[in-house]
Structures are given as C-alpha cells and as structure tokens.
Amino acid sequence: MTILIVVAIVASMLGSILWLMPSKRDQDRMKLRLLARKSQLGVQLTHIELPDKWDKSTTKVKVTAYHKFRINKLKALDHEIGIYPYEVWKHEKVTDNWYSAMPIPLSDKSAALLENKMDAFKAIQITKDAVSLYWDERGDESDIVAIQSLLNELEAIEGLY
C-alpha cells in the first residue's frame, strides 16, 4: 500500500512539472523571438486593427509584431502606410493578393516572401518611427532572415512619402 501511495505522489509531481513546461510550439516561438532580437528586430506581443474591404470597420487581431526601428525618423511621412494581404478599397496592388495605400516597389525576393507567407503575415505598417510586420509566428529560423531583409528593404524605400 505504501508503494502505491509513493507512486501516486511521484506521478502527481511529474504531472505538475510537465504541465509547467512550455509546449514544443511555444519553444519554437521563443527560438524565433530570440533570433529576431539577435537580428536587431524588436519583438512585441500586441494586437492590430485590420480594416475590412471597404475600410469602414476594423477587426482586432492578436499578433506578434517584429519592428525594424529607424535611426532617424521620417519627418516627411505624415500618416501610416498599411500593407494588407487582401484587397482594401482604394488601395494599390503591391503583389498578387497584397495591397497598400500607396504604390510600393518591391524586389522579386520580397514579393515572393509575401506571397508564400500570406496566411501567416497579417499586415505591414510603415510609420515615421519604424517598419513593422505583424504575423502569427508560423515559420522557421530561415523566415527571420527573410523578414529582416523585407523590413530593411521597406525601410530604405525613398520618395514614397
């Protein structure tokens, strides 16, 4: 009987320890976030309000934002530029299925990334302080390098504002 009680206590303790450990998905997300920070990207758990097709109402979505902060603010930019993976009324087509408030030239590599990650990427915001990618972190470590390249390219675009 004592052995049965000891086994039950040990099983209970092991169950509690396993319950506290992060899942494989959470461990993968933490690896992505650590790599992003090492790549000079800011990581933030946040939400974004996405416009509907007619730009009348918004939907709040919980996402992770990867920011590329600017060293010098863009004083000429007086409003945010949103890039969305769906059509919004009066927005310009950037690539297939991606639309922006202003026409934005992208390299073939960046356009291919947007097309391949259309389900994972929720939006891109260009502000005077930063370029931010909002996504649900479904990817691997090679995606961080591609995201950094995309954000650097968008940060370097001149004359849009």
Describe the global form: elongated
Unreliable spans: none
What percent of the residues sit in helical stretches (DSSP H or I)?
25-40%
Question: What is the arithmetic mean of pLDDT?
Answer: 88
Largest sheet entry: 7 strands, antiparallel
Rg to the nearest angstrom?
Answer: 21 Å
Q: Supply the helix-strand structural class.
A: alpha+beta
Distance from N terminus to C terminus (CA atoms, Å) equals 78 Å
Number of helices: 4
In percent terms, what proportion of residues is strand?
25-35%
Number of strands: 7
Q: What's the arrangement of strands in the largest beta sheet?
A: 1-2-7-6-3-5-4
Order of helices and strands: HHEEEEEHEEH
Task: Give a description of the structure.
The protein is of the alpha+beta class and 161 residues long. Helices cover 37% and strands 28% of the residues. It is built from 4 helices and 7 strands, in the order ααβββββαββα. The protein has a 7-stranded antiparallel β-sheet. Strand 6 and strand 7 form a beta hairpin.
